[in-house]
Structures are given as structure tokens and as C-alpha cells.
Amino acid sequence: MEQEAKIDRLPIDLLAHIFGFFTSFTDLAQASGVCKNWKQGVNESLARRQNLSFAGWKMDDDSTARLVSHAYNIKTLDIPRSCWGCQITDSGLIRISMAKCVSNLTSISLWGLTGITDEGVIQLISRTKSLEHLNVGGTFITDESLLAIATSCPKLKTIVLWSCRQVTERGLVELVDKCHHLDSMNLWGTRVPENCLNNILIIRPNLHIKV
Questions:
Q1: Is 107 helix (H, G, I), strand (E, B) or coil?
Q2: Nearest CA to 80 among 98, 63, 58, 95?
Q3: What are the residue boundaries of the structural domains of the chain, listed by start?
Q4: Positions in the chain whose pLDDT score sits under 50
Q5: What is the pTM of this model?
Q6: What span, in angstroms and rounded, lies between the C-alpha atoms of 19 and 42?
Q7: For 1-48, CATH number?
Q8: Coil, strand or helix: which one is 210?
Q9: Distances, alpha carbon 90 to alpha carbons 49, 77, 117, in Å
Q10: Which strands sit side by side in the sheet containing 107-109, from one edge to the other?
Q11: From start to end of the chain, where are the E strands?
């Protein structure tokens, strides 16, 4: 009882500051279950973060969406494939798309997430009006996602489509034509023919294309 009373006396602001140093989401989850104050402190620490990366962690739709929903102020969201086997699916992306932070995100990485499709990507992208950097390399997206990106991300500067073998000239031309700030595109490992690259460079001569 005495130990519990001491925990309760710690200010939420101090708890949030301490939890801000935590790099393990497992530790944060355990801390959140200690008591009501600690849970509030964990949520407050997430709300203060500017960047949220799940690199190297085994995450699923529920845990990822829940953490993102508390990270009100993040600008960068990194959900790449991990050695543990990231289980993020379209369902997770759709839930994440409802988070308050999404409209303010400037950078998103979904690198290597083979469990996602156009459905989830389009839902997420449709709410990202401030996006400047996007990495969807190693996924199975198609031109449908590129058309959504072209429509929803007017501030886009860089995009990684590494090994996205289902994208075609149609989607790429639309993307380059509408995203006027785009200056870098990674097309390594795609099936885009050389004449397509020439057509893209006619539209945007200064575009840096990595193949």
C-alpha cells in the first residue's frame, strides 16, 4: 500500500518525461498496466513524441493502431518489416488512418510490409495532406495507390517504390504530373521499361530517378 501511494504521488508530467526515454514498447505496455497514473503518464509521453518507429519490433494491427492513436504530435511514422515478422495488415492501416496525427505526418515508411494492399494504403494516404516522404518499397501496391498518392499528397518530395513490381507507367506519370514538388523517386527492382523513364523525365527533367 505504501509503495502504491508513492507511485500515485508522482506527477503525471514527471512520469511522462521518464517514459519518454523508453525505447521498448513492451516496457511501455507493462508500465501502462501498473496503475491509472502510470497509464496516463505513458499516454502523455506518446503524445509528446515527434517520431514513432516500430523498426525491429514484432507489432500487430491492434497494438500499432493503439500506440499511434495516442501519439498526437508525431511527424514521422515508421512501420517497416522487422526480423520478428511484422503483422500489419490493411485493417491496421485503416485504423491508423483515423488517428489525429495522420493529417500532420510528413514522413511515412511502410517498407517491406507484404501484408498490406492498395485498400489499406489508399485509406491511409487519403488523410495525409502534409506528406513529403513516403516509402512503400517491397509492398504489392499497384497504380491505384499511386493515383491516390498523386491526388492526396501535393507536397510529396520523395517516394521509394523499390521492388514494387505491379506499378506501371500509368501510375508513375500521374504521380509525377500532379506532385509538383517531387524531386526523388526510387524505382529500383520495378518492371518499368526504359522508355517510361524517358517519358517521366520529359515531364520533370530535374527529377532524380534511382533504378
A1: strand
A2: 58
A3: 1-48, 50-210
A4: 1-2
A5: 0.86
A6: 6
A7: 1.20.1280
A8: strand
A9: 25, 16, 6
A10: 51-53, 76-78, 107-109, 133-135, 158-160, 184-186, 208-210
A11: 51-53, 76-78, 107-109, 133-135, 158-160, 184-186, 208-210
